[in-house]
Specification:
With 169 residues, the chain is mainly α. The chain is 61% helix and 0% strand. It is built from nine helices and no strands. The chain starts with a helix and ends in a 5-residue tail after the last helix.
Amino acid sequence: MSNRCTAWTSYQRRYNVTPWWGACGYVSMWMLKSYLPESTMQIVYRSLAESVINYGLTSFGFASDYKIEKIQKLQDKCVKTTVGKNPSNLSLEQIYENLGILKVKSLLKYNVVKKYHFNGKFRMKIENSYLTRLQKTEQYHVPPWSNKYGKRTLDYVIPELYNSLPAKL
């Protein structure tokens, strides 16, 4: 067995790597980090990890916070692997900002806005005859919910997201 396979097998045993880790490219990035410069590792991150996370957000994006945190931890590991040894001792927030990478929740909001912006089904305006000074120009109707599942449906998420956006972008 080659050294790479041996390294991967020992890593797999040590950290109990599940198949999903390999699917997002973390293992490949871990194996390549000692051979490639940081600029190339950023390309590898965007092609292997971010593309899989972005694709999967359409199905697991409205999952429970616990599941989203697990995905966020995976993204954090991939970003740390991309940077390498981090000689300037930057915090993880600064690394995300320097690389121009969105975290999982921000990426989900971006994808929702991008996908449903022109779909009028979820954006029913609230008609208010009272003029108040602090009211935003456009507020959308958020349906009532009675459980956590109701808060994860598109009927609730999209108007809530649009209402939370600032008035001027």
